[in-house]
Write a structure and sequence with these properties.
alpha/beta; seven-stranded mixed β-sheet; four-stranded antiparallel β-sheet; 41% helix; 16% strand; globular; binds 5-S-methyl-1-O-phosphono-5-thio-D-ribulose
């Protein structure tokens, strides 16, 4: 797997703005043109792309300090990038898995062209390898299923399968971009108020998708309509996706934001400062339970206690209607080193025992609405999600 360093692609740095700053003093007219340019700059965040036999992805482990791109040429390299979280976020994992399978087909073709059974056996192994990388996000097995529908077709020769898989991988990417835009517009219709202050957790942005984002897609669309929007960003322990990634995305677009530690959310809610919560999802079950980054459940409880709407934004490829509720969603447990320190720094005593579940499940009763690319689902979700599925 190679790595290249590329220039930063546009995007004005927003700088910090304190909550107490006079938002009134902003000249809205003067900001309009800037805002348009900043909104357009989201297209310049190149999370993951297919380039004729290479999957190029920004290495999210190194953001925001360095903008480095990985060039994956085998499905094993893609699997490694997923496992180590160079690429992350449920929809981006789906895109990566699809592209990984397209690489697997290319690699299997020379030997498998005249031996379809061997060709399929190699794709089966790649699919299993990619499936085993991370267990919680539903978009990953969803994308593998999409690819499996192609490579199991007996009427297609290996060459045709390979072309069809590449095409489907690119479609999954393009569909995700379109889905995020739709989610953004549906979500923006829900965010009322003259000066909304949205709390978000983790990173459900352009970096977690093919582009634009789900929760951040809603935030971007709200901002396009109302520049008075302000965002509070949970830092999101232990891997700091909020502090490193969401803060990077929002500041480069000039969207007013402040970073808080996870345990400050309740304080800002109880003071009446937060008007809505918008988060992403890794898996949504038939009854509307939502698996998302660890800490999301706590935020939902605080939102309920404080009477604040709690919105979940996700494409329909995150909805797993085969699971009746969240109790059986596989929850990834990650390395102790993510909790005992960060990078080279260690702050916990040697040998300390650690728990590190990467996700939790927010019960449907805490979710005000689920914003999908097909429209907004309201409780009872069993019914509304079934209706949207069509
Ligand atoms: O462990 P991560 O960084 O992959 O977790 C990501 C999240 O929990 C996101 O909120 C979720 O995948 C939605 S991304 C649009």
């Amino acid at each position: 797997m190679g790595a290249t360093r590329e220039p930063s692609y546009g995007g004005a740095a927003g700088g910090e703005r304190g909550m107490g700053d006079p938002l009134e003093s902003i000249s809205l007219e003067a900001q309009d043109a800037d805002r348009e340019a900043q909104i357009a700059s989201v297209g310049s965040i190149r999370t993951i792309e297919w380039h004729d036999g290479e999957v190029i992805m920004i290495d999210q482990r190194r953001l925001p300090l360095e903008e480095v791109y990985l060039h994956c040429r085998t499905w094993e390299e893609v699997a490694d990038a997923i496992r180590t979280m160079a690429v992350r976020g449920a929809p981006a994992l789906g895109v990566a898995a699809g592209m990984g399978m397209a690489l697997a087909a290319r690699a299997a073709l020379p030997a498998g062209a005249g031996a379809p059974a061997q060709f399929r056996a190699e794709l089966q192994a790649a699919s299993k390898g990619l499936f085993e990388t991370r267990p919680t996000a539903y978009n990953l097995p969803w994308a593998l299923k999409e690819m499996e529908r192609i490579w199991t077709r007996e009427d297609l020769a290996p060459g045709e399968v390979t072309r069809a898989m590449e095409q489907r991988a690119v479609e999954i990417y393009e569909d995700d971009l379109a889905s995020c835009r739709a989610i953004g517009e549906y979500g923006a219709d829900l965010i009322s108020g003259e000066s909304p202050v949205i709390l978000t957790h983790c990173n459900a942005g352009a970096l977690a998708t093919a582009g634009y984002g789900t929760a951040l897609g809603v935030i971007r669309s709200v901002y396009a309509r109302n520049p008075r929007l302000h965002v509070l960003v949970d830092e999101t322990r232990p891997l700091l996706q909020g502090a490193r990634l969401t803060a990077w995305e929002l500041t480069r677009e000039g969207i007013s934001m402040e970073l808080i530690t996870d345990n400050m959310a309740g304080y800002f809610m109880s003071r009446g400062i937060i008007t809505q919560v918008v988060v992403g999802a890794d898996r949504i079950t038939a009854n509307g339970d939502v698996a998302n980054k660890i800490g999301t459940y706590s935020v939902s409880v605080l939102a309920r206690e404080n009477g604040i709407p709690f919105y979940v934004a996700a494409p329909f490829s995150t909805v797993d209607r085969s699971l009746p509720d969240g109790s059986t969603i596989p929850i990834e447990e990650r390395a102790a080193s993510e909790v005992t320190g960060f990078d080279d720094m260690r702050w916990a005593p040697l040998g300390v025992r650690v728990r590190n579940p990467a996700f939790d499940v927010t019960p449907a009763r805490n979710v005000t609405a689920i914003i999908t690319d097909r429209g907004v689902a309201f409780p009872p979700y069993e019914e509304s999600l079934r209706r949207l599925e069509g």
